[in-house]
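Thread: quick sanity check before group meeting

JM: Hey all, I'm pulling together slides for Thursday and realized we never actually wrote out the predicted structure for the chain we discussed last week. Dropping the sequence here so it's in one place. If anyone has concerns about the input, flag it before I start.
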Amino acid sequence: MSSKKEKEPAQAQDVEQISCQQSEEQAAEPAAAEETPNPLLEELEALQKTLSEQEDKFLRLAAEYDNYRRRSQKEKESAWADSRAETAGAFLPVYDNLERALKQETCDEAYKKGVEMTMSQLKEVLSKLGIEEIPALGQTFDPNLHNAVMHVEDESAGENTIVEVFQAGFRNGEKIIRFSMVKVAN
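JM (edit): ok, ran it. Output follows.
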């Protein structure tokens, strides 16, 4: 029996040694797991990086599209304004001739009435297009709006005052279609 008792403590010591070795191996496994990269973790990081790159590309594309849309809208509005200005510019000689006809004396009232009606219709069409006449007579000379072709000394008129308009000027909003041709005093 004594040999049985001696074997039991030896076996107990062996079991303890085995369990210690197992616990050391288990403790070494997480350390080894940390040292060797996990393929799933690497794949996750690569996918996150790819997703980040794709999100960046999407945001850039969305910004480019938004810029394109705004630029296209601005070009479209500009083209419309330019075409209105060109069209109105083509009718300005007609306006000038009607204005000269109105200034002429005539005995035929029907003729005069017809010219007045034609002129009022032309003014109405221009106003519908957003074309307006630049005010000039009695105004202070502005080189951004007026073209001075004559200068006169007149004490009754103020400094840089427009005293006569030879040709009416027109604008479409801020765009000048034609400058007013004027005579400036002092």
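AS: nice. The domain at 52-185 is CATH 2.30.22.10 (Nucleotide Exchange Factor Grpe; Chain A, domain 2). Helices lie at 2-35, 39-103, 109-128.
JM: adding both to the slides.
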